[in-house]
Structures are given as structure tokens and as C-alpha cells.
């Protein structure tokens, strides 16, 4: 399984608009954080998680050739506002339609923002995005592997926490972005995974996101083989890893690719 990090930043992105702090002025490319999103290749199946406002730039940068399946973790602007640019990937599909999996909350947001993408084929001109909107079940079995999902508390909404298990290799990847806590069911699901991505917003507490110390406590409990924090703000530079992190936990950065 391959994980391509399209973006690793919080809703503001880094550099943040009109900020001249040290991290926003950093020349280290790993401190340029577009909004958080990953692309997963599981036994050849291309799964896109979220579409940020920079989605088009991200997939051009990483030369993503196709998307077979899209998952929306939740309907916040930094995760949903790039979905119109899925139009090209819809065009590349035999039926012109992309399966889009989401929660009830995510479905409401997609319907509100992209009503034109939900029309049946023939009712909208070719070239537009066309989504086959579906609820993500707790367990989605596919020939290429299994995708399990679990709700993660994130203020007024729940985020879909995702765990991928590749058929054959049995390698497991958990993507837990945008959450204030990781409930026990989500912990059981992700315990001992090969790779964990976890919300680790900033060093100080936040009402709807895990802080870095809170995230590290979750990592210690889950014992993944590798762990990365994502959805990062300008409060930390990539080079600050040694200050804030322990037990081999790292900061994710845009453009990193991990094979498990
Ligand atoms: Zn800044
Ligand atoms: Zn969010
Ligand atoms: Zn977010």
C-alpha cells in the first residue's frame, strides 16, 4: 500500500495569509503545508481522501493519474471545497461517475455545495463532476482490501476515521484527521496498525482538535509501527520535531510518500 501526502496543513494552511512569523517565512519546503489530504493506493485501487481548496495543485504536483473511489471525512471547507476539480477524474471513468463515500453530515454538505454534480447522466453536460453519493458503511469490503470507518468527535460534527487493510499483504493504515478525542472503538480499530496518521494541530489545546501532547498520548496507547501527525499549524516548524515529538513520531509534510 502506498500513501501519498497531498497536504498536511490546518484550515489556514502554512504560510498563513498575512503572517510573517518565522514558520510562515521558512525556506524549508516541508514547512509549506497545503490543506490536509492523502491519496491511498491499495492493491492498485486509487482512493482519494478529501479534496482541499488546493486539490488541483496537489494532484498535479503528485501526478495522480486516476481516482477510483473518493471518501469525504467530513464537510468542513478545508476538506470539501476542492471537489469540483474531481470533474477530470469523473471524465476518466467509463461511466463518467465517481463513487463518493461520506457520512450523513458530509452528504448534506455535498448536496448543498454541489447539487449539479448529483444529476443523473444526460441531465448535465459532459465535463461536469458527477458523483454517485453513498454512505460509508462501518466496513466496506472490496477485492483490493477492506475500508473500515469509525466516528471521531470533532466539535459539532463527527469525522470519519478510516482504517485500510490491504488484501494479500494485510498491511494496515489508519487516517484519523480532525478529531478532539479518539474514542475506545476507534482505538481498538487502529491498534497496532502499520501506519497511523493523526490530527496533531499545535502544541497548545484546541476545542475541536488534538493538541500535539494529546496526540502523542494516543500514539503511545495505539502502538503503531509508524506514526505521523498532520493538520499542522504555523505554531511548529518541521525541524521542531525533536522538540515536540518522541517515540519515533514524525510530522507529515506535503509530497511525502510512504510504502507499507
Ligand atoms: Zn505564521
Ligand atoms: Zn474539520
Ligand atoms: Zn480540517
Bound molecules: zinc ion
Largest sheet: spatial strand order: 6-5-4-3-2-1-14
Bulk shape: globular
Order of helices and strands: EEEHEHHEHEEEEEHEHEHEE
Determine the N-to-C terminus distance: 5 Å
CATH topology, by name, is: Metallo-beta-lactamase, Chain A
**Category from helices, strands and their pairing:** alpha/beta
* Helix count, DSSP H or I runs of 4 or more residues: 7
Strand content: 25-35%
At CATH level 2, the architecture is 4-Layer Sandwich
Q: Note poorly predicted spans.
A: none
- Calculate Rg over CA atoms: 17 Å
Features:
28% strand, Metallo-beta-lactamase, Chain A, single chain, seven-stranded mixed sheet, 260 residues, 14 strands, alpha/beta, binds zinc ion
Amino acid at each position: 500500500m502506498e500513501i501519498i501526502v497531498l497536504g498536511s496543513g490546518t484550515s489556514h494552511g502554512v504560510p498563513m495569509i498575512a503572517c510573517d512569523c518565522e514558520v510562515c517565512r521558512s525556506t524549508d519546503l516541508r514547512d509549506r503545508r497545503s490543506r490536509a489530504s492523502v491519496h491511498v493506493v491499495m492493491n492498485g485501487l486509487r482512493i482519494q481522501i478529501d479534496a482541499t481548496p488546493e486539490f488541483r495543485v496537489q494532484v498535479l504536483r503528485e501526478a495522480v493519474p486516476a481516482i477510483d473511489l473518493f471518501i469525504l471525512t467530513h464537510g468542513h471547507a478545508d476538506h470539501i471545497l476542492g471537489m469540483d476539480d474531481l470533474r477530470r477524474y469523473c471524465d476518466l471513468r467509463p461511466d463518467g461517475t465517481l463513487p463518493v463515500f461520506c457520512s450523513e453530515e458530509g452528504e448534506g454538505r455535498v448536496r448543498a455545495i454541489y447539487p449539479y454534480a448529483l444529476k443523473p447522466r444526460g441531465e448535465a453536460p459532459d465535463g461536469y463532476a458527477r458523483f454517485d453519493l453513498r454512505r460509508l458503511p462501518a466496513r466496506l469490503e472490496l477485492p483490493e482490501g477492506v475500508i473500515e470507518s469509525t466516528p471521531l468527535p470533532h466539535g459539532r460534527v463527527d469525522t470519519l476515521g478510516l482504517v485500510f487493510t490491504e488484501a494479500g499483504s494485510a498491511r494496515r493504515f489508519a487516517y484519523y484527521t480532525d478529531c478532539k478525542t479518539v474514542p475506545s472503538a476507534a482505538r481498538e480499530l487502529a491498534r497496532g496498525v502499520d501506519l497511523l496518521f493523526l490530527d496533531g494541530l499545535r502544541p497548545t489545546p484546541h476545542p475541536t482538535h488534538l493538541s500535539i501532547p494529546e496526540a502523542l498520548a494516543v500514539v503511545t496507547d495505539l502502538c503503531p509501527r509508524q506514526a505521523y501527525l498532520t493538520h499542522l499549524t504555523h505554531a511548529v516548524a518541521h525541524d521542531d520535531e525533536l522538540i515536540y515529538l518522541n517515540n519515533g513520531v514524525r510530522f507529515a509534510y506535503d509530497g511525502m510518500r510512504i510504502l507499507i
